[in-house]
Amino acid sequence: MSSPNEPVIRVVRLSKVYRSGFRMKRVQALADVSLEIERGEVFGFLGPNGAGKTTLIKILMGLSEPTSGTALVFGRPPRDATAKARLGFLPESPYFYDHLTAREFLDLAARLSAVPKSEATGRVTGLLRLLRMERAADAQMRGFSRGMLQRMGIAQALVADPELVILDEPMGGLDPIGRKEFRDIIIDLRERGKTVFFSTHILSDVEMICDRVGIVIEGRMVEVGRLSEILTGDIDSIEVTVKGVTGKTQKALERVSQRSIKSGDELLLTIRNEEDVDRVLAICREMGGIRVVGIAPHRRTLEDYFMAHVANAGGRRD
Amino acid sequence: MIDRVYGVALNTFRESIRDKVLVTLIIFAVLVMGSARVIQPLAVGEEAKVIKDLGLSAITLFCVLISILVGGRIVYKEVEKRTIYIMLAKPVRRWEFILGKYLGLMAVLVVSLVVMTAAYYVILLIMGIGAQLYLLLAVLTTFFQLAILTAVAVLFSTFSTPITGAVFTFAVYFVGHLTRDLKLLAAMSPSPVVKVASYLLYYLLPNLSNFNIRAEVVYGAPLDPYAILLSGLYALVYTATLLLISATVFNRKEF
Lengths: 318, 255
Fold this sequence. Notes:
The complex is a heterodimer.
Chain A: E1 9-20, E2 25-37, E3 42-46, H1 53-60, E4 68-73, H2 81-84, E5 87-90, H3 102-112, H4 117-130, H5 146-158, E6 164-168, H6 176-191, E7 195-200, H7 203-209, E8 212-217, E9 220-226, H8 227-232, E10 235-243, H9 247-255, E11 259-263, E12 266-271, H10 274-287, E13 291-299, H11 302-317
Parallel strand pairs in A: 3-7, 3-8, 5-6, 6-7
Antiparallel strand pairs in A: 1-2, 1-4, 8-9, 10-12, 10-13, 11-12
Helix pairs in contact in A: 3-4, 3-5
Chain B: H1 2-17, H2 20-34, H3 36-39, H4 47-71, H5 76-80, H6 83-89, H7 94-126, H8 136-159, H9 162-176, H10 179-188, H11 192-204, H12 214-219, H13 225-251
């Protein structure tokens, strides 16, 4: 058993090198990745396609072995059955058995996860209801749409009421309603003290539900931290809107601004920091006849952050 | 452990039994047995024996086909469709998964054998030919043979594509029926290379001709019950060894 303070997931200096193609070309899928996920966290694992997200998840699931470094789940090697008994996993674009019905498959998942027989039926019925799959419960899964398969994937991951849920691109194939429902499921899991680790490239989902995020680009973990630290740590810029500006004042104001846009008698100034805002206000007071109609700090969104990192990585590569 | 192996086996059984390939093969087997009526006039005086022999041959042939065609893609399909990710994410050990897959497929073969044998007896009764119970002995040894062959198919399925696997499994089946000739070849060949290769194959490949007692049961030749028991034990040991190798190969596999 792991101690209560043991991180749920611990990854230390993990690297993975593939040999691929006819000429056995070396592909570095992960390079020196370290990470710890604490109990009760909702962790978003971000990165563009091909960044190494699925590789790390496969190693955490014992489906693939690292080239170097260690990965521990509940303090155990990933292949350990006792670790797996405590987690649920949803792979990317999950696919199931064509000829099994939804209920049969969830029964199987419950059986393999050692859910007591007395509880299994109730658990399966409850999940089918939660994921609005009741009407398809006794249909063979070969006719299921992508969204339905995704729901089945989530259901089978939750069937054993696991302490840790690992989800690879869980929002894939879901429509906006499905995504909202899925977010509610994650929020519910967090409220019940579960740990959630999920990969995605859909940033809006992450901003709404994650406690911490890790950003992986080209196999390297470029940032790990609380979303609030990453995003509010730096106010990107401040937008000040002023009215009644004359030609001379405009020049003075533009000198302290990064950008300005004139629209009618309004001037929108983009200002770097708070000191420059004071300067703008001082100019306005000195000149007179100018009214400040709006000051709006422009915080960085995760998307800005993400794009900046991807651009940097691209720049290094070139 | 038993619960998990049973889970995988039940799943494999359900998935295969609902597959069109299986149903098609069983229907064909029954059609072939029924077609004995057409060839009946050709064999004057020996009709009953020809029909009995043909029926037993059809049962063996079609069960071998099921074993090779369904068994040859049984693990591969899980990897290709990535259902393996979900199965191995559960607290299932890899050897439990292989054993479950194998047992599920064997359950499918037992059901196929039962259905085909029932049809066989019905056909014999309809044609007014004595449907003796001892014919079942040939079905039993066919079952032993299928146990080995399915383990061969599962082994190939852990590392090769279904087509390659099917070709190799069929080759094992084919050569497995000629192992006595291999021994003869080894004894008689002047070339040391051929000698070594023949002996190697002779000892490595399953001796499947032991399981063919069709002629004996059809023509009423005496049968040694100990030989049948021994062939059953042989099948058990050979199968267990193959499954162990399969589990070892599968255990090293990365997805």
